[in-house]
Amino acid sequence: MSSSSVVLVLLFVSAPLVLSAGSSKCISRSFGHDSVVCECNSTYCDSVGSVQLPPVGRFSSYLSSMEGSRLEAREGQVQKNSSGTGLRLTLASYQKYQKIRGFGGSMTDAAAINILSLSAASQDQLLRQYFSPEGIGYSVVRVPMASCDFSTRLYTYADSPGDYSLDNFTLAAEDVHMKIPLLQRAQALSPGRLSLLASAWSAPAWMKTNGALTGKGSLKGQPGGKEHKAWAQYYVRFLEEYSKHNLSFWAVTTGNEPSAGRMTNYSFQALGFTAEEQRDWVSLDLGPALHASPFPKTHILILDDNRLLLPYWARVVLSDIHAGRYIHGVAVHWYLDGVVPADISLGITHSLYPEYYLFATEACAGWSPLDRGVKLGSWDRAEQYAHDIIQDLNHHVVGWTDWNLALDQTGGPNWVKNFVDSPVIVDSKRDVFYKQPTFYSLAHFSKFLLEGSQRVGVSASTETDLEFTAFIRTDGSVVLIILNRYTTVKQDGNTQNHLHDVVEFSTRFTHTHSYIQ
């Protein structure tokens, strides 16, 4: 890159910063955990504002920290030919990797219920925080096809037994009166077209071997048979009905967590597939159905399950030329990421099938029985998010999607009481919502890594506990995101408290930094 390039560096650290123009401060509130939430109401919510590139020779940085900094901004002078002894991160722009598709969250029934439980003004405030230019730049929204556990009831769009032609296919009230209007409002706020992603949890019970939406069950018959073809046409009908509301989908997945439907007595909606069954269903049914529909350019993402199933699942499905020609990418969830290293799941999958992109489609905190439900102000969970996103990005993932856009203070509603956490927690009685530390953790990526940003090489001058990733945006600027999950950073035998005091940057660039500490 030339010396006129600009870098955004986004760091989590603990130094006090000055807010940028157009920004507003967090109204912090403590609920007894290790950090704070930012409270928003119908008339006020903190915002980083619009981000402007710094002049050549200067850098901008944005800081979030356990102590309460939230995307706080400052600008500084790049020190050229520095002879300092600090840790040096060097960007290698000639090392080019994947391009970003986007970041976002999921418009579940529960998310829609919680957003709509607020006053109209507070609803608008919440949607702006996610989707407007002054918000955090969400460009992806995952939409469940019919009910999931984050619904208040079990339903599909074709619950009439034997309706193989789907004559009675009908969107639910949850779609027509909640999700669709909110998606339209989000689209109106967004500066670009949202990338909508559809995932189904279960086929209608009459299509399934167990005759139920829940538990262990798969489609009756074999790929190419009438149930499999009807299930493929169900996808087409869904896309058709949403298109009537001017909502088009970038992609569909082959179904949420197919391994769950292979488990005994799985507690909520699921549809089991083996890798072989999914391969053949795509090849014989879903792929041809979409190709012959008005939506032939809609992407198909396989797996939509935990990455520990990789590279096995990808080998089975993508090695088949008949299925592979219809598929665009592999969708992964973050649960159990610690069980298998990213190198031997994401890394090997990319090396085997580089023509198919990797996309993270679901994550949430508070899912583990050992750390359950909502924790208002948990910084540890923000660090978990940032760590996972950096790890995914550094292993070829092109985007990352959170789970529910908003939940209530119990982590619901959820018909099976599978309560979890969310970046936004709604208190409808007070007509307020709380932006969790995880909201800002995501913001360090979603606001700055715009679609088309390309990951480049970055290396440290010495061994370090810092985690980092670097991208060149389409405007030529560079984004460097750094996570410090430790109270201090050791450098040359000395202990440093602030990343600003530790990290120096390659003199070939001006910088914008994003720090998380």
Automatic annotation (TrEMBL):
Record pathway: Steroid metabolism; cholesterol metabolism; Lipid metabolism; Sphingolipid metabolism
GO biological process: autophagy; cholesterol metabolic process; glucosylceramide catabolic process; lysosome organization; negative regulation of macromolecule metabolic process; protein catabolic process; regulation of macroautophagy; regulation of membrane potential
Subcellular location: Lysosome membrane
Domain of life: Eukaryota
A Pfam family it matches: Glyco_hydro_30C
Transmembrane regions: none
Enzyme category, top tier: hydrolase
InterPro entries xrefs: GH, GH30_C, Glyco_hydro_30, Glyco_hydro_30_TIM-barrel
Chief subcellular location: membrane
Protein name: Glucosylceramidase
Organism: Acanthochromis polyacanthus
